């Protein structure tokens, strides 16, 4: 998935948007993630690019024709109310737009560019889903997560025999994907708490799952496959994903066909899509397969097995903590480089049957868990099914999520002293069941 570096990655590059040069910020001039926003409820949504604490109004750039080198087809796509048309165009046009937008914001060209662009304070904008997501697939690509969860439910055989042969996944629900900040209502469901008589009621074991999502670019036609070596050409960019899960519903329903109602009530994504171009400097060798692992079939062999050195964090704040002005508490921190299956393998396997992926489809990684206790990406693992609760800073105990809890996912790459490329935030507050 590694792409070549060019002038847009130059770590010395600075923007005339002062806040973009803050080393602790997510959105320096080397990032330039795409999103969709509006200022008023009734307004047509427009495409923007995050720069520091501002949003570059990309639709206006398209209308004013200030994006040299960007073809008219891409100009048209950038004036649309979602990113789908732009995602469909493919890497040469994405790269041309990144180059032109970077130059507009470069401190060296301030006098030529500043008068021609519109910047909007991020705090004034309402972010929307970046694309119309037609289909959503969720994988299970962390071997640490799979081993932990497996050992709770099947102590004699934590990993199923297929785990090291293929990336396990299921088809999720696209209609309930919501953008960061949307409240999440505690779902009702059928649960069987005493393994006796099932009841219908609010889930008691509500959980988050820290995941990274990939948004598909051009995609493939029905009957065609995406070869593992070409997978990068089909990845527009990455977002953070919280795959909210009702564990008691899941436990009762998941056999034999996998999760259904336990995960279809809400899935939250971050609003800014960080492009694969922006992440080019941060690839590292992926988790090595051990000598005892089965050999990979050819269609899953990447030319160079690479993982992404992205730090991922989950923080939690209760209603009480927010009322007392307490900061959210970090409950886990992991790395996306710890995944067993790589993004190109997920794409190759998904399409190996000829299943078509379309621009804007979402493929999520599955819970990102690392080898240590503090890098476990969901409460099921973090509290070991609720048997090892931890205390929040307001003194209350957590096994699973309570009403009023706010979960925030963050992620960033900062390898080698380069400016930090952040994924922004993915948040949601739990509301009581209805
Ligand atoms: Mn998941």
């Amino acid at each position: 998935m590694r792409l070549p570096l060019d002038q847009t990655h130059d770590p010395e590059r600075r923007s005339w948007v002062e806040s973009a040069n803050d080393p602790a910020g997510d959105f320096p001039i080397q990032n330039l993630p795409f999103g969709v926003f509006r200022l008023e409820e009734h307004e047509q949504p427009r495409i923007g690019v995050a720069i520091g604490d501002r949003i570059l109004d990309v639709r206006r750039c398209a209308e004013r024709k200030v994006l040299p080198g960007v073809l008219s087809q891409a100009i048209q796509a950038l004036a649309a109310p979602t990113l789908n048309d732009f995602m469909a165009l493919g890497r040469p046009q994405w790269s041309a737009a990144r180059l032109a937008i970077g130059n507009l914001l470069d401190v060296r060209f301030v006098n030529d560019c500043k008068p021609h662009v519109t910047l909007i304070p991020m705090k004034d904008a309402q972010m929307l889903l970046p694309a119309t997501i037609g289909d959503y697939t969720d994988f299970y690509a962390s071997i640490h997560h799979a081993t932990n969860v497996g050992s709770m439910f099947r102590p004699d055989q934590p990993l199923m025999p297929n785990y090291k042969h293929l990336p396990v996944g299921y088809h999720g629900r696209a209609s309930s994907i919501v953008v960061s900040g949307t409240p999440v209502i505690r779902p009702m469901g059928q649960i069987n708490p005493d393994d006796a008589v099932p009841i219908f009621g609010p889930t008691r074991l509500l959980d988050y799952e820290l995941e990274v999502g990939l948004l598909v670019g051009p995609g493939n036609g029905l009957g065609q496959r995406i070869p593992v070596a070409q997978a990068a050409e089909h990845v527009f960019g990455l977002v953070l994903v919280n795959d909210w899960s009702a564990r008691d519903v899941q436990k009762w329903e998941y056999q034999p066909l996998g999760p259904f109602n336990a995960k279809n009530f809400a899935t939250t994504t971050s609003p800014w899509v960080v492009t694969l171009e922006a992440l080019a400097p941060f690839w590292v060798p992926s988790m090595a397969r051990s000598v005892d692992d089965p050999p990979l079939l050819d269609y899953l062999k990447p030319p160079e097995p690479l993982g992404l050195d992205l730090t991922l964090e989950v923080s939690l704040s209760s209603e009480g903590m927010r009322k007392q002005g307490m900061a959210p508490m970090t409950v886990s921190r992991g790395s996306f480089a710890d995944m067993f299956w790589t993004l190109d393998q997920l794409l190759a396997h998904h399409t190996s049957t000829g299943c078509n992926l379309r621009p804007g489809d979402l493929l999520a990684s599955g819970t990102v868990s690392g080898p240590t206790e503090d890098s476990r990406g969901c409460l099921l693992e973090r509290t070991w099914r609720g048997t090892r609760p931890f205390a929040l800073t307001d003194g209350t105990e957590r096994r699973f999520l309570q009403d009023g809890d706010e979960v925030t996912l963050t992620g960033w790459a900062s390898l080698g002293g380069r400016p930090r490329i952040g994924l922004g935030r993915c948040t949601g507050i739990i509301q009581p069941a209805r």
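Residues 138, 209, 211, 243, 366-367 surround manganese (II) ion (CB under 6 Å). The radius of gyration is 21 Å.
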